[in-house]
Each structure stands twice: as structure tokens, then as C-alpha cells.
Amino acid sequence: MSQATRRPSRSDTSSDGDPEAAGETVLAVDNLQKTYGDGDDAVHAVDGVSFAVDRGEVVGVLGPNGAGKTTTIKSILGLVVPTAGTVEIAGVNAADDARAVYQHVGAMLEGARNTYWRLTVAENLRFFAALGGRDPDVARDRHERLLEQFNLADKADEPVNDLSRGQKQKVSLAATLARGTDVVFLDEPTLGLDVEASVELRRELRRLADEEDITIVLSSHDMDVVESVCDRVVILADGQVIADDPVEDLVGVFETQAYRVTVEGQVPGGVRTQLTDSYHTENWDVLEDRTRFDVTLADGDTLHGVLDVLQAADRQLLDVDGLEPDLEDVFLDVTGTAPGSDADEGGDGE
Fold this sequence. Notes:
Elements: H1 19-22, E1 25-36, E2 43-54, E3 58-62, H2 69-77, E4 84-89, E5 92-93, H3 98-102, E6 105-108, H4 121-131, H5 140-149, H6 165-177, E7 183-187, H7 195-212, E8 215-219, H8 223-229, E9 232-237, E10 240-246, H9 247-252, E11 258-264, H10 269-278, E12 280-286, E13 290-296, H11 303-312, E14 317-322, H12 327-335
Parallel strand pairs: 3-8, 3-9, 6-7, 7-8
Antiparallel strand pairs: 1-2, 1-4, 4-5, 9-10, 11-13, 11-14, 12-13
Helix pairs in contact: 4-6
């Protein structure tokens, strides 16, 4: 699991070492429900979702298609009226004072469609800052830093419509952050970004959380982004929360039962067939002087059994590495569905 940008849990301490600040809840969702239709035709897109997020925490909201992620996030943002339940942001009940809540929240949903393509990049940042009640002139330094951060400084005076898909995505992100809100919701923030821009975005999100105590809730099918950025993961399935744990705990609950084995020379066809029939093997890679493959052990199987087969075939063992499960493995185990799969259509139709 990537650790390049990970930091200690917000439950331990805040970025300035203040344990009291670390425990301040800025987003509280309690028994959120959204039902479409009545009677036998009713669809429970969100069915009693509850979770809380502390100031400066980065939380991933994950789930297979139709799990209720989009409906949950839109209900929190006030874009969908929930059937039941409450949402509080910065201590304000969203149903009682939506305008006050809006001052604390920024959101990027559905990628590049968040911006006005006829406006220039700089004009978009100024517009969205002003829309949130911020003086664009006062926020100028912040906007310049965002343009530099996303390598958009040389595009500041160009209409967004003239930019590439990846650049439009960057503008959407910059515009979302232009207001400097307490809480930011991001849907697939790295979509369309190249590798370098994606890495820079992860660093910026962690910096915003660590140094500015901004709370970030993101939804993404990119498990590497979730692992490297998030403190916690809330997993939804069938409109309900089925897991709410630190990323480290979700990955750590699984003991290593997968190994990458490397032996000298080539493995004879009969031995390979024996291993394949007896164990789950994959990723066979025959090199010039060695053979490498991955093996996943079922209950009751042992690595010694695999090595005994190789030893009987006079294949010298060169290396064995344990393969740690990543968040995608955990997601599949918990939900039975791979992230981004269409196997669970329904609910909010994601």
C-alpha cells in the first residue's frame, strides 16, 4: 500500500498537535434515507446511512455502481431532498439553514462540467469565489497558487473551452478550491489527469488537510488515490454502510495468503498443470533463466505444499514475496463486487 502521502489518523492529533481540534466533527450524517416511489415499486437508494467526519480528515466514500454513493453525496449537499435523516455541516442543520451550510461547502461533481467553458481559467476562479461570497481580489494569492499547483498559470487567460480534457478537469478542481471552504466534496478528482498531475493533486489534497484543516470527502474508483490520500473509508452497498474504518485497518485485517514465487529455469508443463490444478496460480512469467508466478492459498492450503511440488521437480527456489492486499482486494472481499463494476445496477444508477 502506498505510504508516500499518508499521515497519522486525525483521531490522534491535529496538524498543529492539538488533540481537541482533531476531534471536532464538521460533517455528521445521521440515518440518511432516500426512497423513490411507493409500495412494491419503491427503491431505497439510501437506507439509513450514518457517519461523521472530523475537521481536516480525508474520507473516501466507496461502493459498487448502484450502492447509493451519488444519492448520499447529493443529499448531503442539498441537491437531493432526503426522505428522512439529518445532515449537519459545521454544526448547522442543512435542512434548517441551507444558505449557511453552503458557505462551508465546495463540491466538484461529474468532472469538467463544473465550470463555464466560455470564461477564461482565471475568470472561473474569480466567479466561483464571488459566488460563494468571497472577494476575488482578496483571494487572488490563493488563486495564483492554485493555478501554479495545477500547471495552469500559462492558461489563465484562455477560455476553458479551448483546453484539453485533463486541463478542464484541473480547472474544475481549482474552481472548487477557489472559495477556501471548510469542507470539499470531490467526485473522481483524478479523472482525465496524467500521472504527474494525479500525483501532484494527491499531494495538494493532503496539504489542504494537513496544513489548512480542510475536510475532504471524495468518491473514486481509483484505489491507489484512495489508499494514498484517505484517512478513512466508508463503503456502501445496497444503500447501507457496510464498513467504516481507517484505510490501514481495512487492509490489515487480511492476512497475507498470496505469494509471488520465483524459481530457477522453466517449470515443466506437467508441474505447472499440477500447481494450477491444486492451487490458484496466475501471472506466470517465463524469463530467460527463471520462472515467476503468483499463488493464492485457499483455507487449508500451505505455501510448503507449493514448494514441495517445485522441489520434487528439481526447481531451485530463488525468491518468495508475500503480496499484501490493496484496497481493491478489500473492497472486493467486503462487497463481492469490484469497484466500478456494473454488477450492482440500481439505487442511484451509478
